[in-house]
């Protein structure tokens, strides 16, 4: 997202990497006008988060109240301790598949334990300052991953959107799921389909006609009212889950056994990886909208604290949410207080309106998530990467297909590995070793050949040197390698010059290195490329002067 000006944008302060942005904002001065702006932004985000949190929880195979607990506790802690001024934390659609699979395998207790362990891992990642490296995940990986998640979310809502009745539990894998849903096509419920499509259409219409209105809440509310007044035979939150609680549960921590920890740990690692990526990506989006800069490691620590808090109060994994964070910025947020107020507003909604939630049709929430999935897909970015280059197409396509048909974590890991290989190939192609002809030398029957390197010279580019050597038929008396245009060299790249030094020495010549910076020279010397085999001079002119001085000496 391109950066735009924001009324609260100021130069970044030199605070520590773990200092919460809340403290920074309060230091800068926080007045009543800022509180009013944050209250309005927090209320706006809470209205968006109310139906969405319940929908994500239901799609994940757990009760809607747990989505609200997650948004309330996790959202408050993310804003209070986070490294981003505008981050809104809560349940995210990207976690639906993971949470559903975790619940199916380990139960609610296993999900809670995995959430707590994920919190510990996120705090450790922040303490080890891994946030800087997580942000280096290639863009095609994030696009392919997000598009894959969108497909899975939409597929998970087909049953409730069409009101289908399945004779057995809905399969988790995409292909068996679609086969089971197709087999149940005769059980389609037209009232449910009408409510689902009407909700989706209402959200889209509100966004286009009155974009400042809370389209999700309006559409879900209208569908609930229609279902109640018309006595439509559709499944609702009340008919499936019963009444929602009006208060947060008391915090609870069960001491797990080693077997439970072993079962929950793989899920915790997946939650940690996905949560870190999603949160930091959301923070980057907020930075682009406001001109601010988040503290990535502070954000990871806050996400860890939020996950621990969410697990203690009956919620599940928390992450930064891009759509709600963007809504927070657009609503005029001045800082983290708006995110904290958003959580308190949700708590107030829970206390006041919990009985009304029982009337919400599940088809309406399915329609809402269908719109969310459509918006998540990043269709233009996906096709743009497919057309950009073969390397980008390979990375985004492989990530997408693995996420959809195999596993989320596998898709990220393989996509990251492919992205690294594509990067290595491109950097290797950028490294060149070309002969330079403007430095002839004929004194005393000798000659001088200069080869100029350009681009980063690392292990991926070392083969370029071998190819250049193969093209050299006769080695000169003086062979110069000019490093002036080389920004960096690694040990593999430096080691590859050892072969060149040996060949030049066998032919009775001498190898000269010019234009080396102190950093480059340090790497080259560490690989044994030192006198008497190699001489270092500032430039080619210095080599010529040295050779002329040598030629003038008597035999």
TrEMBL record:
Pfam families the UniProt entry points to: STAS (PF01740), Sulfate_transp (PF00916)
Domain STAS: 447-550
Gene3D superfamilies: STAS domain
Top-level taxon of the source organism: Bacteria
Coiled coil: none
Membrane-spanning parts: 39-60, 67-88, 94-124, 136-158, 188-206, 213-232, 264-286, 344-374, 394-424
GO cellular component terms attached to this protein's record: membrane
Location(s) in or outside the cell: Membrane
GO biological process, one term: transmembrane transport
Name of the protein: SulP family inorganic anion transporter
Originating species: Gemmobacter fulvus
Biological classification of the source: Bacteria, Pseudomonadati, Pseudomonadota, Alphaproteobacteria, Rhodobacterales
């Amino acid at each position: 997202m391109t950066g735009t000006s924001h009324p609260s944008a100021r130069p970044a302060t030199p605070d520590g990497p773990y200092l919460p942005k809340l403290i920074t904002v309060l230091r800068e001065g926080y007045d009543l006008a800022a509180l009013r702006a944050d209250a309005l932004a927090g209320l706006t985000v809470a209205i968006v988060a109310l139906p969405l949190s319940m929908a994500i929880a239901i799609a994940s195979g757990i009760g809607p109240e747990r989505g609200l607990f997650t948004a309330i506790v996790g959202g408050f802690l993310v804003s209070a301790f986070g490294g981003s001024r505008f981050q809104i934390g809560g349940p995210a659609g990207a976690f639906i598949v993971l949470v559903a699979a975790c619940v199916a395998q380990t139960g609610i207790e296993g999900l809670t334990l995995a959430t707590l362990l994920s919190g510990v891992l996120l705090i450790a990642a922040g303490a080890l300052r891994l946030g800087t490296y997580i942000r280096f995940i290639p863009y095609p990986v994030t696009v392919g991953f997000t598009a894959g998640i969108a497909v899975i979310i939409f597929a998970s809502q087909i049953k409730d959107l069409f009101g289908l009745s399945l004779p057995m539990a809905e399969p988790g894998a995409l292909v068996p799921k679609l086969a089971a849903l197709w087999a149940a096509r005769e059980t389609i419920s037209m009232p449910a389909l009408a409510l689902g499509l009407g909700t989706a259409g209402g959200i889209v219409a509100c966004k286009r006609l009155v974009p400042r209105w809370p389209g999700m809440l309006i559409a879900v509310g209208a569908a609930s009212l229609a279902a109640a007044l018309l006595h439509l035979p559709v499944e609702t939150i009340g008919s499936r889950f019963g009444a929602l609680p009006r208060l947060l549960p008391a915090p609870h921590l069960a001491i797990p056994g080693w077997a439970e920890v072993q079962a929950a740990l793989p899920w915790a690692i997946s939650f940690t990886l996905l949560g870190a990526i999603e949160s930091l990506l959301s923070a980057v989006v907020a930075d682009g909208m406001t001109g601010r800069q988040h503290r990535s490691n502070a954000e990871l620590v806050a996400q860890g604290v939020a996950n621990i808090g969410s697990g203690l109060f009956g919620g599940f994994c928390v992450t930064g949410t891009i759509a709600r964070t963007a809504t927070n910025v657009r609503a005029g947020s001045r800082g983290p207080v708006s995110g904290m107020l958003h959580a308190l507003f949700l708590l107030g909604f829970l206390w006041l309106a919990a009985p009304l939630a029982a009337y919400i049709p599940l088809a309406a929430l399915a329609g809402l998530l269908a719109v969310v999935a459509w918006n998540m897909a990043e269709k233009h970015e996906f096709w743009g990467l497919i057309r950009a280059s073969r390397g980008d197409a390979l990375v985004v396509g492989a990530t997408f297909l693995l996420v959809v048909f195999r596993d989320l974590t596998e898709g990220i890991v393989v996509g990251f590995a492919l992205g690294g290989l594509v990067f290595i190939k491109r950097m290797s192609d950028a490294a060149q070793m070309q002969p330079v002809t403007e430095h002839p030398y004929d004194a005393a029957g000798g000659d001088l050949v200069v080869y100029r390197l350009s681009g980063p010279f690392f292990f991926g580019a070392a083969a370029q040197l071998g190819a250049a050597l193969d093209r050299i038929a006769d080695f000169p008396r003086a062979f110069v390698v000019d490093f002036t245009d080389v920004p960096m060299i690694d040990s593999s790249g430096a080691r590859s010059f050892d072969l060149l030094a040996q060949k030049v020495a066998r032919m009775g010549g001498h190898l000269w290195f010019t234009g080396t910076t102190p950093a480059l020279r340090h790497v080259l010397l560490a690989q044994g490329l030192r006198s008497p085999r190699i001489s270092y001079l500032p430039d080619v002119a210095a080599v010529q002067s040295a050779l002329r001085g040598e030629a003038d000496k008597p035999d």
